[in-house]
Design a protein that fits this description.
Layout: E1 2-5, E2 9-14, E3 17-22, H1 29-38, E4 45-50, H2 57-70, E5 80-84, H3 88-100, E6 105-108, H4 113-119, H5 124-141
Parallel strand pairs: 3-4, 4-5, 5-6
Antiparallel strand pairs: 1-2, 2-3
Length: about 140
């Protein structure tokens, strides 16, 4: 397990799933750079939980550019990304990223851990484990 705790964004890798937890603010540039560096890894998927915070326009452009360079240009498929949020703007970002990378992003409500993690192919035991991890990460951001 590797983790990084910063003020607005927490990144943690468990097995081959990248866990990201955002509070309600935009990540700092350092937080975002750390996240982008992790994208180079061979991941099965991403579980992103946000209370409404997320990347700003420049950070989204950088993420799309990095994803294209790391994945598309190398013939690799972008890991499936599951975004758990009750925020309408964040759900809109899921739609935008699906335009850029078709069928690689899914949105779920904050309380739907089972649906989100089953979308990533997680077993019932893994759902409970990842839910605990996300709870720890959210508590660390509070």
């Amino acid at each position: 397990m590797k983790s990084s705790n910063t003020a607005n964004l927490m990144v943690r890798i468990e097995d081959d799933i990248l866990l990201l937890v955002h509070n309600h603010k935009t990540p700092s540039e350092d937080e975002w750079k750390h996240y982008l560096a992790v994208l180079n890894r061979n991941l099965k998927g991403q579980l992103i939980v946000t209370l409404g915070g997320g990347p700003n326009a420049a950070q989204r452009r950088e993420a799309a550019k990095r994803a294209k360079a790391v994945f598309k240009d190398n013939g690799r498929q972008i890991p499936l990304s599951v975004v758990m949020t009750d925020s309408a703007p964040m759900r809109g970002l899921v739609t935008v990223f699906n335009w850029l990378f078709p069928n690689r992003f899914r949105a779920f409500q904050l309380h739907d851990f089972k649906g989100a993690l089953h979308c990533l192919g997680s077993s019932s035991q893994q759902v409970a484990f990842y839910e605990r991890c996300i709870g720890e990460m959210r508590a660390a951001l509070s």
